Amino acid sequence: VAFKDTLHRGLGRATEPQILFPLIAASLLAVIWGTTFSLVRVNQSVVAHAAAVSSRDLLGTYEAQVVRALREIDQALILVKFWAERDGSRRTLAELRDKGLLPPDLLFVVSIADRDGAIVDSTRPAGKQNVADQDYFRRQRDSDAFFIGQLPRGPTGEAKLHFSRRLNAPNGAFDGVVIVAVNANYFVSDYEPAKLGKHGVLGLLGTDGVFRVRRTGDAVISGDTIDYSAAVAGADDADATISTSRWDGAQRWTSARELYGFPLAVLIGLSVDEQMIVAQRQTRSYVGWAALRSALALLLTGVLGRMSWQLARGQRRESETKLAHAQRVEYLAYHDGLTGLPNRAMFSKLLSQSISEAHRHNKQLAVAFLDLDRFKQINDTLGHEAGDQMLQQVASRLKGCVRDSNTVARLGGDEFVVLLPELGDGKYAALVAQKILLLIAEAFTLLGQEFRITASIGISTYPQDGLDEQTLTKNADIAMYQAKSEGKNNFQFYSEKLNANSLERLTLESSLRHALERNEFRLYYQAKRDLVSGRIAGVEALLRWEHPDLGTIAPIQFLAVAQETGLIIPIGKWVLKTVCLQSVTWQQQGLPPMGIAVNLTARQFGDESLLADVTSILTATGMDPQLLEFGLAESLLMHDVDDTLRILTGLKALGIRIAIDDFGTGYSSLATLQRFPLDTIKIDRSVIRDYVGVTGDPKLADAIIAMGKSLSLTVVAQGVETKEQAEFLQTHACDELQGFYFKKPLPVDEFTKLLRGQATEITYIGQRLGLKAS
Amino acid sequence: MNNSRMKGIAMTVGALTIGIIHVAMAVEIVVIVNPKNTLAKVTGDQIEQIFLGKSTALPGGAHVSLVDQADDSALRDEFYQKATGRSKAQVQAIWARLVFSGRGLPPKVLGSSAEVKKFVASNPDAIGYIEKSEANESVKIVLALP
Q1: For residue B108, which of A78, A111, A162, A103 has the smallest C-alpha distance?
Q2: Is B137 exposed, middle or buried (0-12, 13-18, 19+ CB in 10 A)?
Q3: Is A109 helix (H, G, I), strand (E, B) or coil?
Q4: Does residue A512 contact residue A562 with C-beta atoms inside 8 Å?
Q5: Which residue from A36, A281, A363, A407 has the least number of CB within 10 angstroms?
Q6: Nearest CA in chain B to A186
Q7: What percent of chain B stands above pLDDT 70?
């Protein structure tokens, strides 16, 4: 399998252009040159074989020619010898010639010498007259055999070879010699350059190893000696073999054969260089052909390779760009743009991974939530840019005080989280938290100024505080709010001991922070009924929180937290702005102007920017201040009378009506009450419940109504739930009443419908209240 | 005889000799055949072909029997020079090759123009050459080589 993989990878890589095309080129070259060299080899061996065969065939022909020529000569010798010995006459040649029994005069000279060497007869009379000193004469004197003379070493020119036989006297004694002389060239006259070339050899070799004659090209030589047995060795039919000619050092396919019946051998040689010229020429043409094809193949693969490489490079670049883009997108998806830290999504992923790891290895891990205290102030006073700078610095400080294996992420706003995986023991988390607090507490330099900030940290640990991502996160969040409520600039571990109430409160606070930005607040409107006319006399705006998980939450459940955290200030501003806009909207819809009551909490009332905020909201919305009524708790007014008076006077100066809410629960001094610029008193629902009705004593309600009347205040009864209560209040001249008996609070749409139905009556009430319809 | 006279005769003989040689060199050669031969004319090329062994028959298909002058005769050298443009050695080499390879037989060699004339006169298919001055009615001239 491993081999197969390697093979597969190898094949895969081979298709890459930078490998594929050189491979193709190399294969093409290998094929071209392989073919060429094999052709050259074949061609050479064909030529060599042809030369060897040719050499042997030529030798056969030559052998036949030489044997026939020698036989003709010997027959002439024997014939002359016969006649000369029989007749004793020495003058027989003319007669024999006339009979045509001698070889042609043109080439051959036949002579007869007597026992002293004197020429006694000749077919060519003018010649040497005594041959006693010649080798053939001396040899014939000693033996009776066909003899072939030699020539001196060197070019033969016109020199003649002499063939002889001895003449015997009747008693067997030497009686002279018959000689046939022929030009040495005669034996090599059939040298055909077409077959033997310029450097072949054709020769007649004596068994004594002496060349009688040999010819190469036009040069006819005789007399040199070679090793006869070496030259003539070998089987008759064997092809010629290459050997080096001793006389000129040339390489030849040489073959030689001894003649039957004569002391001679014929020899033929074909020059290797000459015969191979054709093969060499062909080799050159093959090589040239191969070189041309190679160049073409290289050019073609080069061009194709380059095109393919460019294409591949283009594709690679494109995919690299895509990949880089995808990586960038992924980075952005999982990182916070401002600080470069992992974002909530990434943190969530890392946390669940770490939980699995910790679960697998039975380890602990910790999640530390960090929230900057008072960060909003930095943002508000220095601007967002400075705020961002601070967040960046916080991010780098956080990264600096944790291990590489720990993760710092930004969840949004001024919320950070540190993930401490593979926790040895809980102490490390505490150490880290402490270190973080110290580092954050160090001064920041923003816009050239030093600022200090603190942070609150909540820590939850796996597996004690939760086994899943959500629980751990939620519990760390809760612990963080615990730290906030413990006075900030500290860290808290999550604990089961946190009581349910505080748990709920902490959860509430956590989500309350986001309620405004998530637009979870709604206003409900409750009508006030004029007791004389029975019509709608005005409206009170009531805040509701539509929590995504908990449903609609009444202010009583969250106002304490809102007050404590100061969130009531932005919430209050939202309420006021929304009320004003709604009032203006109703009037624009053609509904009669109508007083709207809004309650203020102690925190709002104590807020220094209250007057400024109200003024700017009135200006911004175009609300008529005289239609606006602020409801204040009775207890609130008595807290700091001078301060209260100042604020109430300010509000009054704007034209806003003031109502005392929940009247009858506090201990108001009537004297003090008289100093305040009040317009309305609202009798608390407990007074109505306890004192109005069949079982109750109506005296207190009666007294309050009477007091209100005496102070020329509008008296409103709150929380009217029964018919008896309504009837009682009516008889005791209460101005308006409010409560479930009349109408429960309604969402804006339904309330608007209600208003449309009773538009005329409200107009009437408006007039009664001394307001002008606009 | 006085010495000066002897001298004069010798000079005259010398001059004559020179004259004869001169005349011999410039002699006109004729190719002859038997009078019975129907052939009227041959060309120089045909003669060359026949005397170099390249052809053994004359136009008309008649086999020819060649006769040559003696090996050492000046006439023979001159004939071959005129008829073939070749030297005696070259002609001999050509015939040597023909004979050696068995592809031909060289002309029969006769000792004198008289013998040639006699041979031609008595052989119907013979063909030979002599000086023009030697020619008579016993032979038929088919080509003159001036």
Answers
A1: A103
A2: exposed
A3: strand
A4: yes
A5: A281
A6: B96
A7: 80
The mean per-residue pLDDT over the stretch B41-68 comes to 83
A13-22 confidence digits (pLDDT tens): 767 777 888 8
Parts of chain A with a pLDDT under 50: 499, 762-774
- Asked if B93 lies within 8 A of A107 by C-beta distance, the reply is no
E strand residue ranges, B5-131? 29-33, 65-68, 108-109, 126-131
3-state secondary structure string across A673-711: HHHCCCCEEEECHHHHHHHCCCCCCCHHHHHHHHHHHHC
CB-based contact B95 A107, cutoff 8 Å: yes
pLDDT of residue B5: 52
- 8-state DSSP, B133: G
Q: How far apart are CA B141 and CA B135, in angstroms?
A: 8
Q: Tell me the shortest Cα–Cα distance from A210 to chain B, in angstroms.
A: 22
- Cα A441 to chain center, whole Å? 45
The 10s digit of each residue's pLDDT in A433-473 is 888 998 888 888 887 888 888 899 999 988 888 888 888 88
Query: What is the rounded average pLDDT of the residues B73-86?
Result: 89
Contact status of B101 with chain A (Cβ, < 8 Å): yes
Residue A45 tokens read as 């061996």
Residue A638 to residue A667: CA distance in whole angstroms: 8
Q: Supply A556's token pair.
A: 């009583």
User: How many other β-carbons are positioned within 10 Å of the β-carbon of residue A265?
Assistant: 20
Of residues A665, A656, A659, A683, the one with CA closest to residue A737: A683
Q: What's the angle, vertex CA B112, arms to CA B108 and CA B114, rounded to 5? A: 105
The A-side interface with B (CB below 8 A) comprises 65, 68-69, 100, 104-107, 124, 126, 158, 183, 185-187, 189-190
Can you list the positions of beta strands (E) in chain B? Answer: 29-33, 65-68, 108-109, 126-131, 140-145
Residue A715: the pLDDT is 83
The pTM of the full predicted model, rounded to 2 decimals, is 0.48
Residues 6+ apart with CB under 8 A from A90: A84, A112, A114, A120, A121, A176
Pairing of strands A407-412, A415-423: antiparallel
Chain B positions touching A187 (Cβ under 8 A) are 100
Q: What is the pLDDT of residue A733?
A: 65
User: Which pLDDT score, from 0 to 100, does residue A741 have?
Assistant: 64
Average pLDDT over residues B39-67: 83
Residue A288: count other Cβ atoms within 10 Å of its Cβ.
Answer: 11
Whether B96 and chain A come into contact, CB under 8 Å, resolves to: yes
- How many DSSP H helices and E strands does chain B contain? 5, 5
Rg of chain B in Å (alpha carbons): 18
Q: List alpha helices for A88-159, DSSP H.
A: 93-98, 135-142
B106 neighbourhood in chain A, CB within 8 Å: 104-107
Chain A residue numbers with beta carbons less than 8 Å from the beta carbon of B105 are: 104
Residues on chain A touching B100 (C-beta within 8 angstroms): 65, 69, 186-187, 189-190
Chain A contacts of B122, Cβ < 8 Å?
none
**H or E element in which residue A755 lies:** helix A748-757
Our CA-based measurement puts residue B60 at a distance from the nearest CA of chain A, in whole angstroms, of 27
Phi, psi of A448 (to 5 degrees): 80, 5
Nearest to A668 by CA among A654, A682, A685: A682
User: Would the pLDDT of B83 be above 60?
Assistant: yes
State the helix-helix crossing angle for A500-515 and A555-565, rounded to 10 degrees.
80
Chain A CB contacts of B108 under 8 Å are 100, 105
Distance between CA atoms of residues A715 and A737, nearest Å: 8
The pLDDT, as a whole number, for residue A322 is 92
Phi, then psi, of A732 in degrees rounded to 5: -95, 20
